[in-house]
Amino acid sequence: MRLPHILKILGLGAVLMLASGCWYHTHYAHGPAPVRSNVVYIRKAPPPPRHYSRPPRPTASAIWISGYWNWTGVEFAWVSGHWERHPPRNKRWRDGRWVHTARGWYWVPGGWY
C-alpha cells in the first residue's frame, strides 16, 4: 500500500471513531450568530439528548466524548458518544452544542481546548 492511501484510511477511521458513542448532556445554547461562514441554520430545534448509561471506562486516562444530534440535511440523526482512549495531553474536551439565534439553530462542534 502507498503511504497516501494509508493516511486516507487512517483519517477516515479517526472521523468514524469520533462519530460513534453517547451520553446525556444539554447541547443547547442561545447566542449570537457565529463568525464562521459555512454555518447551516435549521428552523427545527434538535430533539432532546438521549439518556442512557455510559459503557465502563476502558482505561484510567480515557475521556468521554458525548453523543449529539447531527443534522443530515433532511433530519436529525443521533451520533453516539464514545471513550477517547488516547486524549491529547494538557487538553480538555468541550462538547459540541446547538445554538439558537433569530435565524434558527446551528451546530458548534466539540473540540480539544
UniProtKB/TrEMBL annotation:
Give the PROSITE patterns listed for this entry: PROKAR_LIPOPROTEIN
Q: Specify the protein name.
A: YXWGXW repeat-containing protein
